[in-house]
Amino acid sequence: MKLALFGASDFARELGHLALELGCARIALLRRSTGRANATSPQTVDGFAVLDESTVHTLAADDWRFAIAIGASALRRAVAERYPELPYVNLIHPHATLARGQAEAVAACRGSVILAGARLSSSVRCGSFAVYGANCTIGHDCLVGDCVTVGPGAHICGNVHLQAAATIGAGATVLQGTSARPRRIGARAVVGAGAVVTRDVPDGAVVKGVPAR
Fold it and tell me: Which of 2, 5, 38, 91 has its CA 20 to 30 A from that of 19?
């Protein structure tokens, strides 16, 4: 498989290495078009070719696949909305753990990234273009919306709904909801690193601390 990754940052390099581990034959990083030449921009990053984003449709016509190597939920969502028709693939680290039925749930999505040590429990509903950081856990009966970011080492307990483009910082914990009343982290909300969430978080809110406020 030939894989082009949107982004040319450190996270893009990390996903490039994951793609190599998954057996991708060719990998390129896509830098956002600036509209002007930039002679100082690197042509390779860690051995990966860096191409201008304007080459996207040429690559797609040549049977390349795509993923979005951007950690920020809002920016990842913007790329997905800018190029909704591209053939996006999921990147799942071989050391991630998916409960029974979750591989099929993730396969029904597009463009999600599951890093080493991440664990998805049973009956998790998965959206597209989500990023599951290293060693994070997603409890039973959770909802992970489109373009959600779950940071490294974050723990999402059971019956939690992460709405579209929500961000859970590294090491944060969202305590469990119930089947009758799931805990809700609103769309575009941000939970700070290390926070402990004990109540619902409204759309667009930023919370931090223990308990998170």
Answer: 38
List the structure tokens of 57: 């449709």
- CB within 8 Å of 13: residues ≥ 6 apart: 29, 45, 46, 48
**For 94-142, how does the pLDDT look when each residue is reduced to its tens digit (9 = 90+)?**
999 999 999 999 999 999 999 999 999 999 999 999 999 999 999 999 9
pLDDT at site 34: 66
- Whole-model pTM? 0.94
- Cα angle at 58 between 54 and 60, to 5 degrees? 110
Q: Please, which residues bridge with residue 45 across strands?
A: 48
Q: Residue 161, CB half-sphere, CA atoms under 13 Å: how many?
A: 15
Q: Beta strand pairing status for 48-52 and 44-45?
A: antiparallel
For the chain, domains (ranges, CATH) are 2-82 (3.40.50.20), 91-206 (2.160.10.10)
Single-letter amino acid, residue 79: V
Cα 84 from chain centroid (whole Å): 16
